[in-house]
Amino acid sequence: MTVIDPILADVQKPTSQARGLPNAHYTDPDKFAEERDALFGAGWAGLAVASDVPETGDAVPITFLDIPLLLIRGRDNVVRVFQNICRHRGMILVEAPRRIEGAIRCPYHSWCYSTRGQLVATPHVGGPGFNTHSDLDRSTLGLIEVRSHVWRDVVWVNMSGNAPAFEEAMADVIARWSDFEQPMHHGGTDSQFTLTVESNWKLAVENYCESYHLPWVHPGLNSYSRLEDHYNIEIDGLTSGQGTLVYRQLTGKAGQRFADFTGLDDKWEAGAEYLAIYPNVLLGVHRDHAFAIVLRPDGPTRTQEHVHLYYATADTDAELRETNARQWKEVFEEDIFVVEGMQRGRRAPGFDGGRFSPAMDGPTHCFHRWAATRIAQRRASA
Amino acid sequence: MTRTLDTALLRAHAVGDLAALVALYHEAAMQAEDEDCAGFYLTHAYVFALERGDARSDLLRAELVRLGRDSIAPPEAAPNAA
């Protein structure tokens, strides 16, 4: 018989009656481990962006939820994700980002793998100078690949390997933003930055997907983007966020602007949307640029926010690009004190997960409801 | 292996000079007094050639296969295959 956790049941109530996830989900390593499987492993989670490995052979080791992974662009120009370990003794293969010119050679006993993961050499495995053994079939000992998919430059991974196909799982959000299914170009080194926050990853999601805080935490936006110019977005079990009706394009000193994406519906002329794709990818689209933020948890109380900006054309005005990146960085930095403050608040024993504004906190509660449902499902199947 | 070759190999290892390692281990294989010794050095030359994406890896592997010390790689497994 499935035992319903009364706390998780409370989280799943209607927004007006629900409370949020309790403190332990933000501080407890055991809950963090549970969420790794229930929230990250079971579906599609963001790992990195394909632009992290722009050239063939580029390889970036990433410790994701304590799991050593390797992001690599193969000689066939396909981006893949592998577990970053040798199939021999489990040694870490790649310690730092670098270009693989030929094969990935394990630094321990020099077993070698192609950039597509095949085991291609096993030196001395049959004794000195004998590189084969009848009991060792190289074709079965390639690198362990993690199921992955690239969409909007984000490299999504499905650790369990059995989630629905990405296009199926994300169908609603792909359809919502179908206007933006067109080439976009990473702005380069001046259009990416990383913020480290002393906070559980969920607080970054929760803060991102609601507009309630905007006039208080980002007063600079008030001059043209008022609270009433925003609307909530909720797609149960997939994403939530906010939209604005008054997006204003950045204009340079000489009147220059970024080129628009092509063929957009009129609603995007002054509209923009910001979605938290559960669990850990925060996306934004505007007529002339987009961004992706991949949240990488580093334990239950620290998160790295990897921010990347994209444009409709490969060639953009450098000054304008730099200004845009700086402005977004300022906005995201303004959020740090609240996510870190809420994290410290999770040490207060009297906090019961908090109540939601029925009018304003729908997107945040949508995320909580999804998390509670997935955790309950995980426990039921255990 | 001559002392000069040994010294050169140690230096190449110290600085991670893969091209030199391929050449020096190949040279060591050529100087080897028996096939076991040659197979050992050829293996090292081959591995470092693989690592640097060196075209010599095909020839080194072919030599190892000829000596019965490696298998013929399926084409798609070659690290330089498109």
Features:
heterodimer, A: 382 residues, alpha+beta, Naphthalene 1,2-dioxygenase Alpha Subunit, Chain A, domain 1, Rieske Iron-sulfur Protein, eight-stranded antiparallel beta sheet, seven-stranded antiparallel beta sheet, globular, B: 82 residues, mainly alpha, 68% helix, 0% strand
Structural features, described:
The complex is a heterodimer of chains A (382) and B (82). With 382 residues, chain A is α+β, with helices and mostly antiparallel strands. Chain A folds into 2 domains: 249 residues, Naphthalene 1,2-dioxygenase Alpha Subunit, Chain A, domain 1; 104 residues, Rieske [2Fe-2S] iron-sulphur domain (Rieske Iron-sulfur Protein), CATH 2.102.10. In chain A, α3 crosses α10. The N and C termini of chain A lie close together (12 Å). The mean pLDDT of chain A is 95. With 82 residues, chain B is mainly alpha-helical. Chain B has one domain. Helix content of chain B is 68%, strand content 0%. In chain B, α2 packs antiparallel against α3. The longest helix of chain B has 18 residues. Chain B is flat, with a radius of gyration of 13 Å. At the A-B interface, β7 and β8 of A face α3 of B.
Question: How would you summarize the topology of this molecule?
Answer:
The complex is a heterodimer of chains A (382) and B (82).
Chain A: H1 6-11, H2 24-27, H3 29-41, E1 45-49, E2 58-64, E3 67-73, E4 79-83, E5 98-99, E6 104-105, E7 112-113, E8 119-121, E9 145-151, E10 154-158, H4 166-169, H5 171-176, E11 185-186, E12 192-197, H6 201-208, H7 214-217, E13 230-235, E14 239-244, E15 272-277, E16 281-285, E17 289-297, E18 303-311, H8 318-334, H9 336-345, H10 362-381
Antiparallel strand pairs in A: 1-10, 2-3, 2-5, 3-4, 4-9, 6-7, 7-8, 9-10, 11-18, 12-18, 13-14, 14-15, 15-16, 16-17, 17-18
Helix pairs in contact in A: 3-10
Chain B: H1 3-15, H2 18-31, H3 35-52, H4 56-66
